[in-house]
Amino acid sequence: MLKTTTTIVAFIILAFSVFLFFAGHNNPGGGFIGGLMTAAALLLLYVAFDVKTIKRVLPFNYTTMIAVGMLIAAGTGIASMLGGFPFLTQFDKYVTFPILGKVHLTTALPFDLGVYLVVVGVALLSILTIAEDDA
Amino acid sequence: MSVLHLVVLAPFILAVLVPFLYKYIRQVHTGWFVMILPLALFIYLIQFLPNISKGETFFYHQPWVPSLGINFDVYLDGLSLLFALLITGIGTLVVLYSIYYLYNKQKEALNNFYVYLLMFMGAMLGVVLSDNLMTIYVFWELTSLASSLLIAYWFHKERSRYGAQKSMLITVSGGFAMLAGFSLLYVMTNTFSIREIIAQADVIITNPLFIPAMLCVLAGAFTKSAQFPFHIWLPDAMEAPTPVSAYLHSATMVKAGIYLVARMTPVFGATPQWFWIVSGFGIFTLLWGSVSAIRQKDLKAILAFSTISQLGLIMALLGLGSAAFHYDVAVVGTLYYTATLAAVFHLINHATFKGSLFMIVGIVDHETGTRDIRKLGGLMSIMPITFTVALIGTLSMAGVPPFNGFLSKEMFFTAAVNATTLDIFNMQTLGLIFPIVAWIASIFTFAYCMLMFVRTFLGNFKPEKLQKEVHEAPIGLLIPPIILASLVVIFGFFPNLLAYSIIEPTMHSILPNVLADGERFYVNIYHWHGFNIELFMTIGVVIFGALIFLNLKKWAETAFFLKERDPLNYVYDNSLVWLVSGSLKVTNMQMTGLLRDYFVFMTVFMVGLMGYTLVKFDAFAIDLLNVAEIPPYIFIIIFVLLGSVVVLPFISHRVTAIAATGVIGFLVALLFVVFRAPDLALTQLLVETVMVVLFLLAFYHLPELRKEKFTPRFKLTNLLVSIGVGVVITLTALSAHAMSYANPIEGISQFFIDNAYELAAGKNIVNVILVDFRGLDTFLEILVLAIAALGIVVLTKLRFTGGEDV
Questions:
Q1: Taking CB atoms and an 8 Å cut-off, how many pairs form between chains A and B?
Q2: What ipTM score was computed for the predicted complex, to two decimals?
Q3: CB A118 to CB B686 under 8 A?
Q4: CA atoms within 13 A on the CB side of B99
Q5: B498, B533, B563 — which closes off a domain?
Q6: Rounded to 5, what percent of chain A is helix, strand, coil?
Q7: How many domains does chain B have?
Q8: Which of A90, A106, A118 sits opposite B782 (nearest CB)?
Q9: B45 domain-assigned
Q10: How many structural domains is chain A composed of?
Q11: Is residue B800, in this structure, part of any structural domain at all?
């Protein structure tokens, strides 16, 4: 029962977290909240199933995830420096794609993605480390 | 860079080479290489005598830190030449003496000894030749350092270390005071150059900083020159090897303070404060030192107190000599500068006879194995040369004709008697102190000179008390004291050799502007003054001094004579103990090792500071005009929130406590919702959830909530402190609110509202601020999170039991 519910609910939460993440620029949400929401969904999976199963299904290395998140966040800042702008200058542009139509692209999004990855990594890394600690 | 600069630097350069000479040329005693340098410097410096005696001075400029006005300027006039000659001349003799004194090349750490000695010599030359106050200070501290190193040369002896520490503490404290005084002089005159400061002497005297500056400078001079009550380090410094005692603690370093006082006389001298402090401390030190010397049983201790007393004498004369600034010397004649003349002359005499006496004591110690006058006696026939030299030195120190000590003592009496005729600073009434104290002190001086001499060389020889077979010292040990003693005799018979070559130019340096240009002080030192009061004083000194010495046996058993140590040592020792125990007490009181105590200290300080600021700046204000209306549901939220907060400290079950904190967190999220902060509310909700999960995880590992029995007093303190924090923070917040309306500042939020979409193309202003306007904050915050997570991993995964090589 729990496992069944979890499989459904977890994906709804995940979807909502992705929504929160993308909605961030114009609506409540953003990388931090999205990341926490994702972490909550994953936590739910860990609670419903055992740690080994989830590790097999989702073979994330959360330490790497934190590093990648930091790199992306720093990278957007450094990229603007390469263009001769101050660190972390953000740009945005409306681009028309063949299928998606007119899309608003902004460099704040990759920065937020970095935040997102770090938050997910931090939350899960700390909780799993403490949970797995049997000493 | 001139040659004079090199004179100062040469000892330091040679000091660098000494260890190499010691290591690679083992068959030659290192001292021979060292001796060449002071001898060369002495010969070089003596060439300046003709020019200096004509009244010329030499000045060479070398920038060091020119932006701060600190330069390595050397200045050579009569005063600095006199000291430089003493330093290099006696330095040569002391090095020669030390070659034979520390004859064992294998056992003695000669490389250390000569490095320290050269360092000291260079520093001392630096002190006397520098024109810049900061340079003087640097060299001054170097002499303190080198002196401590030399005192603790036999560092395995506990008494040596004690003496070194004591001299270090006292002289460096004085040095710091002196630095403060120099800084004040700079504040007043805007220059560190002594000559420029002297030129502004009249400006300084009227300045309110004058007295503090003078006291600070004098503190430096008095500690260095062992004036009462700072003299206590000198007897303990006698643990040093005897060449060191002879060099540092009789002829050179202890005269650094004398030099400073002489140098500063043109700056401060024309004031009653200077006159009274310098001559008062000097005359008292003279008495104290000579009375204390008579109680000593150790030859070197007698000499140490004797040095203290003689330094007091010179100091007193310098003080009395400053009276010359108040008179027109050309009109009233020589009387008013006799004191300065006597000071300079006695300075030279003291260096000669005290240096030779120290060397004699070293020889006695070396040949008999003891310096205790109770064990010595009858050495006259066994050590005839030592005896002769000692006789000359002692008679000179006691002030007996025909030696040079007699001449300077006569002049000292003249100056002291003159002091009664001065009509300044209440001297008509108080002036009588000077001749009386001088006379009594001289009686004691005569007595301890006799004691020292008679007990060592006359009487019965007591071989059973001595460990060595006694015989005359080797010639190398005898040459330096013989040279000094012949100087005593030469200066005694032909004092006018010195008169215009060095004494008169020195007086010019101490008392500039007293004479008109081109005039010279009249210096004529002679033995026979006729039947005047000084002669009768000297006769009295001899008679009473002999009486004291002859009756010494009667007094020897009294408590006064049995106690050798200066009573001021108890003050020093106890204050040192008190300082340590007091600091320990304060530290123990404050550093309890209990986190909750530190927390109480911090919060009490914070509350106190904020409360004080509120009261002091009258910052307390409540303004209800601009307060928003509170909807009823907020009351409900606040009520529940307050309820959870109040209940929290009383919960004794951990899960309940976690739940209660959870309630608080969710209520805060609710408040965010009410106050229209959706992002915050979402974040707060999620963070609270994650926190509760973490708490529960950690809870699994924790023991039962411990019931501690707290004393009511502890509880009361905590209650008061927490109430204080709450009240002060609340008041501050209320006042800040009221004040912000009273003094409105335009907020920056309007900019974000206006430009969030324009500039950053986002409608969620919070998020735009987070990732765009203030993206750096966010970047660093996720870094904080990452570090925290890695910290958790390290703390849980890496379990060192100790001893691992990380």
A1: 138
A2: 0.91
A3: no
A4: 20
A5: B563
A6: 70, 10, 20
A7: 2
A8: A118
A9: no
A10: 1
A11: yes
